[in-house]
Amino acid sequence: MGDNKFRIAIIGGGLAGATLANALFRIPYLDAHVYESSATFSERGAAVGLSANAQQALEMIIVPSSKELLERAGAVPMNSSRAVLGSGPEAGTIIIDLAGHGDPGVVVHRAALLRELLAPLPPDLLHANKKLNSLVQEEDGLYQVRFEDGTVERFDAVIGADGIFGSVRSFVLGDAAAAAAAEHGPSPAGFWDCRVLVPFDKAKATLGEQYFDVHRQYGWVGDGAFIMHDILDAGTTVQCVVSAVEKDAPRDRKRPLTLESLTKSLRTWLDGPIAKGVIDVSFSLVLDQADPQGYSQWEHKSTPTYANGRVCIIGDAAHATSPWQGAGAGQAFEDALILGFLLGNDHVKRRADIEAAFKAFDVVRRPRCQQVIDSSRGTGAIMCGQNPDVGLDPARVRAAFAGRWSFIFSLDLDEYRQDALKKMREFLGQ
Ligand SMILES: Cc1cc2nc3c(=O)[nH]c(=O)nc-3n(C[C@H](O)[C@H](O)[C@H](O)COP(=O)(O)OP(=O)(O)OC[C@H]3O[C@@H](n4cnc5c(N)ncnc54)[C@H](O)[C@@H]3O)c2cc1C
Questions:
Q1: What is the set of domains in the chain, with CATH numbers?
Q2: Going by CA atoms, what residue is nearest to atom 50 of ligand 1?
Q3: pLDDT in tens, 26-81
Q4: Ligand 1 pocket, 36 CB below 6 A?
Q5: Where does the FAD-binding domain start and stop, copy by copy (predicted)?
Q6: Strand 126-127 to strand 30-35: parallel, antiparallel, or no bridges (unpaired)?
Q7: What is residue 133's predicted lDDT score, i.e. its pLDDT?
């Protein structure tokens, strides 16, 4: 324990790693560093929606408050998130308005959110250009991390926040992963999507003023596909997303998009009086970018454990999910909240306490995150008209949506932290 502090490596500086670093860096007996493989800490991609639980977890982590952080990142409240039927005889029927269901969500540009999450962290804790190459436990119990640049460091504990294709996961799963690589590795969720950001005025002019009277997220639910548009960057940008069912997942996880391929994916939508306009505009927005691609959505269908000794995994490294319930980042924030609580508050005096904390983390987090993954895939099926019991009948879609988000929003995070602590104490025989 260097300088009488426990040294912790956080591998990966995405939303999960950066949020965890916020939860750990003020704990006086920890020396937690973030190692990011890229040359800069950066987020690609468009917006991320943060629902009530995600914001609450962040608020419990960020000192003094996450409200200003989200404001600086340009987060925009989702006054409502509205799902409308996009194809079939009932095209245009409003199915649900999530504003009426108790989720005061916000939408924020990913890069801006990451920038603001990194801002409070002491720069000497952040290490870019540090790609983890190997992880081994030494005889004295320390973990040796070898980076691609040839440097080697030793840690009391390692936390993998290295994303869906990260390598800390294989260390944590050990033999179980090797024995069941297909079962526990990342796999296609059955959908692809393409996201594009356009200036607000352009989107308003092309999609139509009627969609921008309030900051509202629109989701068009239809046969084999789903179209969404929402507002971000403090109201200056609009994100447009086209998603569709994926039958054969390409090996490189992406496919070039053309007018022909988009038209094929949404062929049954084209007769609808309302959806036709949305489709035409969405196509033109999506195709009006260099090299438009549809990216396969991947997920973890099962994970036997999130912890192995004093190594654990968080965020997408542990529980990557399809994006249908907008919950992945929120789950990463909950991970950071629980780990920050278990490792802080004078709960850790010996290395064995860290191991117990990681085991407790696994016990409380894994069932919840797996539920999110499974529910999200099922939600995608409903949104793309693929659930045979629901189809595109407005009343059935409405009924199928009802309550799908409440298990995500309604968790009492204070109680949840206490449950995790109780588990940690049980593992320590206390
Ligand atoms: C299309 C899409 C839409 C989404 N929409 C939402 C939404 O609306 N709401 C929501 O809550 N969630 C959403 N999510 C999920 C959310 O974006 C993710 O759950 C979240 O960004 C995961 O963050 P992460 O830090 O775990 O992983 P990542 O963002 O993948 O970060 C991992 C980091 O680790 C680094 N790394 C990888 N390997 C190494 C290595 N060997 N050494 C060092 N560093 C390494 C990478 O460079 C990267 O910076 C969406 C996801 C997708 C794909």
A1: 2-77+105-187+299-382 (3.50.50.60)
A2: 323
A3: 999 999 999 999 999 988 777 888 999 999 999 999 999 999 999 999 898 876 78
A4: yes
A5: 290-375
A6: parallel
A7: 97
